[in-house]
Design a protein that fits this description.
mainly alpha; 0% strand; globular
């Protein structure tokens, strides 16, 4: 039976819960974050209108009803709350923003002939809107630091290895590409024509190929690698791991057995599961809101189908990262056993 956390992670030094160095009272931090985010977004989009003028307005739904505007602002606050109380940093929220906002802008670029300059400008503004407020109010977490203190991040070599990060990004881009390409090859073109009144061109669905989609989705792959793989792979063992390692099926109660079978994963796997669920849910809801509320002629059912493609891609990416992490950990265990098993002559 494991008696202490040192049996699992002898060099563990848990990082503090709060990474903020701001002198603002704690109860004012989140309202300040919301105010900064909305103000920066408004200011940057005002500047960006020089490059996007008339482009988005040609396909945008008129938001005369209060519920449309309130829904979009309210959802932005919900996402900020996810990031703040989920203890994400500026890099986490920027990656999450890129993952959840890209489906909407890919739709506009591929099927509504919105210019690449407009797409890139809007994604840049949204990313900066996420990055700047968090960077001002919360320090970068150890999992995103190149020189993280020993003991605060697991597998520092793997987490910071550039070839590994590149391969993981390509893997994620390929999974997103396969999910979208599979939809294009089966049900999505007809679905778009039926439920997206006013769609301008669906040739992108017929002309798509995997290499093209992978190249387009490389930024999404990099964001997925940062938010899902790097963050989870750097997660250190915790008290839950001690409790799980000490589980004895002969003496455990029914509730303890159920809890062990349902959530008896390592800290690394639990982090990946929670982050994958976060990406899938936020991507789905944000894509549905932006597609249905902001684009003229889109039905609610149609927006839900488009959002489901990307939520599924996020879930499959998380599953692939779980497999990659397990393979890497198994390899390390084998190497350790080779070092400790004596050889006989």
């Amino acid at each position: 039976m494991v008696k202490s956390l040192k049996d699992i992670a002898p060099d563990l030094r848990p990082p503090p819960k709060s990474y903020t160095t701001s002198k603002i009272p704690e109860f004012l931090l989140f309202p300040t974050l919301v105010a900064l985010s909305l103000t920066i977004s408004s200011a940057l989009y005002s500047v960006a209108s020089v490059f996007t003028i008339g482009d988005l307005s040609s396909v945008s739904r008129s938001l005369d009803d209060w519920w449309g505007v309130a829904g979009l602002i309210g959802w932005r606050i919900v996402v900020l709350a996810f990031g703040w109380w989920g203890e994400y940093d500026s890099i986490d929220l920027t990656a999450l923003t890129l993952l959840s906002h890209s489906p909407h802008f890919y739709l506009l670029g591929a099927f509504y002939n919105i210019s690449p300059i407009t797409i890139i400008t809007c994604l840049t503004v949204d990313s900066l809107t996420a990055y700047i407020p968090f960077s001002l109010l919360r320090n970068t977490l150890p999992t995103h630091q190149w020189r993280a203190t020993r003991g605060t991040v697991a597998d520092r070599v793997v987490v910071n290895d550039l070839p590994t990060r590149l391969l993981v990004s390509i893997l994620a881009a390929a999974i997103y590409g396969l999910a979208v390409l599979g939809s294009f090859a089966s049900w999505l073109p007809v679905y778009l024509v039926i439920h997206f009144d006013g769609i301008r061109d669906i040739s992108a669905a017929h002309n798509a190929n995997l290499p093209l989609l992978i190249s387009l989705f490389l930024p999404i792959g990099a964001a997925a690698g940062e938010f899902l793989f790097r963050a989870s792979q750097g997660t250190k063992s915790d008290a839950h791991d001690v409790h799980t390692a000490s589980f004895n099926p002969e003496t455990a109660s029914l509730s303890q057995t159920i809890a062990y079978n349902f959530w008896g994963f390592s800290a690394r796997t639990r982090s990946l599961i929670k982050r994958t669920a976060t990406v899938a849910v936020i991507t789905g809801v944000h894509t549905w809101l932006q597609t249905y509320v902001a684009i003229e002629g889109v039905e609610a059912y149609g927006a839900a189908g488009w959002a489901a493609v990307w939520s599924s891609a996020a879930a499959l990416t998380g599953l692939a990262f779980w497999w990659v992490g397990n393979v890497e950990n198994t390899y390390k265990d084998v190497e350790i056993k080779r070092k400790v098993v004596p050889t006989w002559t």
